């Protein structure tokens, strides 16, 4: 049991869902797990791994599972053939879960002490901790593992600082970079990593994952099919949908988009519900769903070979995404933004093609 440990909150923590460092459950990705176990057992582990794929599919969880595996079996000629789930009855895994194991450095967005909120990126000061960590602890010859989650959040200075370390890695050091959008990484960082691709989870893996986390967030698997369909193979997205009313937001949004006449009262009620200061996650879920609906329409036309409408919907997606970024950058009123975005989307769906 790890309930008595103080698990540090991160920028993407979800109440009731175990942090990756404290999560014994990992569904799917059997091919990646087998590759990592085989590679470590052969003594040919690359010094830098890039775990690339959609957000919320288990990349960070596997990173901590691998770290625990390597620390439990430091001699790569003796480990078992599979990466086993962590046993939190053992001190090693309890230390990893609590973020206090001296051989693991986990870097993510730091907390801004002035505002009490997490920073929007990983600054260079965080990456400078890597050099100190490796220099301070390398004398005993044990593995030292750096997990950067997500590496996409590094600013330019931070990325350049990491690059210098990756160019001359110390012995028995492993870097695991988690990436949801690897296109944001410097090409020179990508070129120094071995990339492992993670895919969205299949329905069976999603069911297994939801069965594990469901009790912590009050989810009954009886409603799992609709949830899995909307989660796009992401356990994180499923958890957010459960914990923050995402299914209801999606259903209300769809009802507005599909009605012939724009239902202003329902749109205003939705904007009031998700446009407040305490509803940032609900607001993001709404935006994700609207963009997803538009992207689905573009894909459908592309699959049918209708290039012009496919391009029109793709361009509409880009315009709306740009509007969303500007709304966030200038801290504009979210309630008004919800009304504007959903009215634009409604008009496009009812006309059959964006303006």
TrEMBL record:
SUPFAM superfamilies: P-loop containing nucleoside triphosphate hydrolases. GO terms for biological process: DNA-templated DNA replication. Pfam families: DNA_pol3_delta2. Gene3D superfamilies: P-loop containing nucleotide triphosphate hydrolases. GO terms for cellular component: DNA polymerase III complex. InterPro entries: DNA_Rep/Repair_Clamp_Loader, P-loop_NTPase. This is DNA polymerase III delta prime subunit.
């Amino acid at each position: 049991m790890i309930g008595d440990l103080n698990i540090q909150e991160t920028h993407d923590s979800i109440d009731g869902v175990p942090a990756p460092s404290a999560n014994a459950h990992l569904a799917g990705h059997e091919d990646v797990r087998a590759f990592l176990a085989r590679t470590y057992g052969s003594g040919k582990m690359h010094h830098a791994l890039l775990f690339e794929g959609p957000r919320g599919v288990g990349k960070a969880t596997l990173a901590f599972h691998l770290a625990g595996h390597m620390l439990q079996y430091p001699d790569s000629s003796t480990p078992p053939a599979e990466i086993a789930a962590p046993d939190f009855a053992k001190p090693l895994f309890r230390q990893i879960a609590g973020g206090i194991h001296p051989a693991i450095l986990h870097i993510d967005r730091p907390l801004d002490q002035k505002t009490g909120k997490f920073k929007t990126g990983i600054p260079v000061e965080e990456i400078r901790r890597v050099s100190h960590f490796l220099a301070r602890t390398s004398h005993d010859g044990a593995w030292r593992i750096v997990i950067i989650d997500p590496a996409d959040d590094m600013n330019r200075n931070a990325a350049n600082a990491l690059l210098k370390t990756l160019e001359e890695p110390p012995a028995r050091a492993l870097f695991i970079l988690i990436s949801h959008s690897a296109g944001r990484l410097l090409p020179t960082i990508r070129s120094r990593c071995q990339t492992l691709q993670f895919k969205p989870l299949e329905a069976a893996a999603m069911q297994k994952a939801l069965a594990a986390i469901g009790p912590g967030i009050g989810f009954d698997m009886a409603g799992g099919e609709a949830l899995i369909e909307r989660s796009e193979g992401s356990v994180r997205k499923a958890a957010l949908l459960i914990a923050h009313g995402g299914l209801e937001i999606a259903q209300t949004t769809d009802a507005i988009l599909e009605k012939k006449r724009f239902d202003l009262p329902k749109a205003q009620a939705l904007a009031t519900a998700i446009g407040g200061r305490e509803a940032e996650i609900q607001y993001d879920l709404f935006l994700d769903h609207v963009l997803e609906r538009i992207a689905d329409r573009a894909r459908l036309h592309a699959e049918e070979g209708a290039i012009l409408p496919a391009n029109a919907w793709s361009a509409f997606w880009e315009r709306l995404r740009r509007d969303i970024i500007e709304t966030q950058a200038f801290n504009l009123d979210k309630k008004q933004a919800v009304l504007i975005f959903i009215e634009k989307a409604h008009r496009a769906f009812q006309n059959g093609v964006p303006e």
